[in-house]
Amino acid sequence: MELKKAFKYSIISLATMIAINGCGSNNNDNIIEDDNLTEENKTEITPYQRVAILAGTEDDINRVALKISDYVVMTDEKVMLNFPSNWVIAGANPHSNETYDGIDDLLPIPVDTGTKVYKSRVIEFCNGIYAKQATNTGQQRGSALPCEVSVHSDGKNIYVDMLDADAIFSLFFPNTPDPDGKMKGMATAVNYEIRTMIMASLANESTIQESTEQLGPKFTEDEIKAINDDDIYLVTKYQNKDNKVFTTSDAKALANDIVEKMGTDEANADVNINGLSDNSQWRSARVAPMEIPGVFVTEACSPTYAKMATRLGSEYITALPCEVTTYLDRSDETNRTISISILSPYFMFQNMFKGAVENAVATKGLSQEDAKEYETLAPTVLNDLNIIVNEAVKDSSLKLVEIK
């Protein structure tokens, strides 16, 4: 099914206009605020934020997720919402000659509640203007994109959560010079625009309640200042054995090779590669890498490790999947370097999942024995990703020149 953005996305209903105008306004009658946000901890940030709650079960997840993605795909946000630029859904980017395939473009992330496993959906929001601003601060940071929204359920209600862009900028873009405040302003705009689109798309849901609840770990300013880029992005640099000058097409070809080695639902990486962790079943979330300005992103999914992550809480869904970014390295002005950046599983688990295991033991019935398995999760995941990347590189004409 091919759908394109249209200036005429029917006529926005009165309910939708109310939802748009109410987002961020002073009308709080239908907003669930974070009860934990006090004067004492306002300087703390959390990476996850709830956007909306509505009645529904696991059977309603796809319907709700599709309403959100359909809205983004079919709405010209510049015209209808007065945004400075338009948004697209990953997998349906017309600038990459992609067409919208509905639910197939939304990532199915398994959620383990401790008593059952069901599939949530992750909707990936992309904006070329904002993405370019982000990767202009460092191409390795493409691994922190795109903006993710999850739709999940506790069997009674549907929850729509998002990564908080203000927090993500602080955590994943540490020590980035921002003298005029443009980056901080961009993060705030991203939060507002994504929230506005979600609420507008669900405006005709009779049970919907907007929420501003903060979820997950909290970080102080001092903790954020202690983070360095090298903690987050694990970068390897490659050059051609014959000193060839590369183009962006070469970086894209390598990203496609990584996707091929990663495999699919039908033939995952376990089939293609020896030495991966037992029953990891790694596969690429998409048939091709995502094209983000200046970089190509491969999304690596393991159902086994995804269930371990979500066993700690549904708020962590948007921390998945693992990301590997390939790019023609602009820091080499001779265009002789292609770099690969892996979003560090160590950083992700120590920060985005900070305190999650202890909390799951205390409140979610996770046994002490099962909790011990998380001690080796980060090194196991990183070793698997390195094996997959090395398999993609080894048959090429590339030689390793630097590891950061």
Describe the protein.
- The protein is of the alpha+beta class and 404 residues long.
- Helix 2 crosses helix 6 (182-201) and helix 9 crosses helix 15.
- It folds into two domains: 14-225, TT1751-like domain (TATA-Binding Protein), CATH 3.30.310; 229-403, TT1751-like domain (TATA-Binding Protein), CATH 3.30.310.
- The chain is globular.
- The protein has 15 helices and 16 strands.
What's the short version?
By secondary structure, the chain is of the alpha+beta class. It has helices at 14-22, 61-74, 77-80, 128-135, 165-172, 182-201, 221-225, 229-232, 248-262, 269-272, 303-310, 345-352, 356-363, 368-372, 377-394, and strands at 31-32, 48-55, 88-89, 107-112, 117-126, 147-153, 157-163, 209-211, 214-215, 233-240, 283-284, 290-292, 295-301, 322-328, 338-343, 398-403. It is 34% helix and 21% strand.
